[in-house]
Design goal:
single chain; binds copper (II) ion; 251 residues; 10 strands; five-stranded mixed sheet; Immunoglobulin-like; 2 domains; elongated; alpha+beta
């Protein structure tokens, strides 16, 4: 019976590792990266994955092995211990070292993606306003100014030109939402009362998911938008067409 427990505990690292291998080979993994900084973010993910995977396999494997090794020895007495300062000190130092390593290796990418000082110096492409349960996108129009009559509006349909830095301002008109472009590796909370600048540079034309990654109410599932990455010419044509449609609807 005791051996059964040991085997049962050993299935955890085996099944856990197997699930990762299976997922990465059968397409149940990340969507393809199509942004300029996505590879760096994926790299950070893999650093953390390798550290945690090693710790996971080592600890669960050790637990299973100990259960098997020390199972059912009639007459053996359990030994009580109050811990071992040297082992605990080593493990604490190792953990501290790993956390510092993660903090240091990710800092350059964090600065590039999230710090205002790392932002590309280009005019703001759009204002994106999250609300229950939709994404409202406003482009400044020909004058480059927001809040003027020539602004162009779009609902759940975010267009950006390919190979250009897209800088936009994210805001929320009600509750917390999370602006998530999985293929661009962009995720940013939209916080009521804050105007948060976000940027990415798409490297491929196409249509991609834009979703809300924060449970924001009963209609959270409906907050599904679309990102269209297109050539600068096609983007300009789309803006002109949106403007014409708006003017036709509100003469
Ligand atoms: Cu939402």
């Amino acid at each position: 019976m005791a051996r059964l427990w040991g085997l049962l505990f050993l299935t955890v690292p085996v099944a856990g590792t197997g699930a990762f291998v299976w997922a990465s080979r059968s397409g149940h993994w990340f969507p393809r990266n199509t942004s300029s900084f996505g590879a760096e973010i994926d790299g950070l993910f893999y650093v953390i994955l390798w550290i945690t995977a090693t710790a996971f396999v080592a600890t669960t494997g050790l637990l299973g092995w100990l259960l098997l090794r020390h199972a059912e020895r009639p007459g053996a007495r359990a030994r009580y211990t109050h811990g071992n300062l040297r082992v605990e000190g080593t493990l604490a130092a190792l953990t501290t070292g790993m956390l510092l390593y993660i903090a240091v290796t990710q800092f350059g990418t964090w600065k590039k993606v999230k710090f205002a000082s790392g932002f590309p110096d280009v005019p703001t492409l759009a204002h994106v306003t999250a609300g229950q349960f939709e994404w409202r996108i406003t482009y400044p129009g020909a004058d480059g100014e927001f809040g003027t009559p020539d602004d162009v509006h779009s609902l759940n349909d975010f267009h950006v030109p390919v190979d250009r830095d897209a800088v936009f301002v994210l805001q929320s008109r009600d509750v917390l939402h999370s602006f998530f472009l999985p293929h661009m590796r962009v995720k940013q909370d939209a916080v009521p009362g804050l105007r948060i600048p976000v940027w990415f540079r798409p490297l491929e034309e196409g249509t991609f998911d834009l979703v809300c990654a924060e449970l924001c109410g009963w209609g959270h599932f409906k907050m599904r938008g679309r990102l269209t990455v297109q050539s600068p010419e096609a983007f300009a044509a789309w803006l002109a067409q949106r403007k014409a449609e708006e003017e036709a609807a509100n003469p």
